[in-house]
Amino acid sequence: MQVKKKFINSNTPNFFSKEMIITKKSLNENQLKFTYQKQLISDLDYKHKEWSKSIDSKF
Questions:
Q1: Region label for 16, one of left (φ > 0), alpha (ψ between -120 and 50) or beta (otherwise)
Q2: Distance CA 11, CA 20 (A)
Q3: Angle at 27 between CA 19 and CA 31, to 5 degrees
Q4: Closest by alpha carbon to 28, among 36, 20, 40?
Q5: How far apart are CA 18 and CA 26, in angstroms?
Q6: Which pLDDT tens digits describe the chain residue by residue (59 residues)?
Q7: What is the pTM of this model?
Q8: Separation of alpha carbons 59 and 55, rounded Å
């Protein structure tokens, strides 16, 4: 007996592309870069809010 898997929702995007191959190592490295950049932006946003508070208190 063979079991065939069917996807109910055909609107889901494909994770892969037939035109492009990405290694798992490359994918992991890009994920780490993205996470690091996201943290930097979060830190910058926090610093900006703190700076804004100090400027507002002076005026």
A1: beta
A2: 21
A3: 135
A4: 36
A5: 17
A6: 455 555 555 565 556 667 777 788 999 999 999 999 999 998 998 999 999 888 877 76
A7: 0.47
A8: 7
Structure tokens at 43: 């830190």
Q: What would the two tokens of residue 38 be?
A: 């996201």
User: Which residue matches tokens 């208190």?
Assistant: 57
Q: Which two tokens stand for residue 33?
A: 């870069």
HEC string of the chain? CCCCCCCCCCCCCCCCCCCCCCCHHHHHHHHHHHHHHHHHHHHHHHHHHHHHHHHHHHC
AA letter at 37: Q
